[in-house]
Amino acid sequence: MDALLAALDDALARTPVDARVSTAGGLVLGHGTLRIVRNAVALDSDFLRSHPRALFQCLHNRLR
C-alpha cells in the first residue's frame, strides 16, 4: 500500500494542475481526479494492507 500511495504522490507531483485527458467516452480526467483517487486509497490504507484484493471494491465504495 505504501508503494501505491508513493506512486500516486509521485504522479500528482508530476501532473500539472491544469492537465486534462479526455477519453473517447467523453470523460475528462485531470489532477483533481488523481488527487481524489489518492485520498480514497489513503482512507482505506490500513484495511488494504491486510486485504489488498479489496482495492477496487474500496474505491467503488468511496467514489460512487
Provide structural commentary:
The chain has one domain. The model has no long low-confidence stretch (mean pLDDT 95). It is built from four helices and two strands; from the N terminus they run αββααα. Strand 1 and strand 2 (28-30) form a beta hairpin. Helix 1 (2-14) runs antiparallel to helix 2 (31-43) and helix 2 packs across helix 4 (55-63). With 64 residues, the chain is mainly alpha-helical.
Strand content: 5-15%
Count of alpha and pi helical runs: 4
Output the helix-strand order. Answer: HEEHHH
Report the C-alpha radius of gyration, rounded. 13 Å
Layout of secondary structure:
Layout: H1 2-14, E1 20-22, E2 28-30, H2 31-43, H3 45-50, H4 55-63
Helix pairs in contact: 1-2, 2-4
Structure summarized in a few sentences:
This protein is mostly helical and 64 residues long.
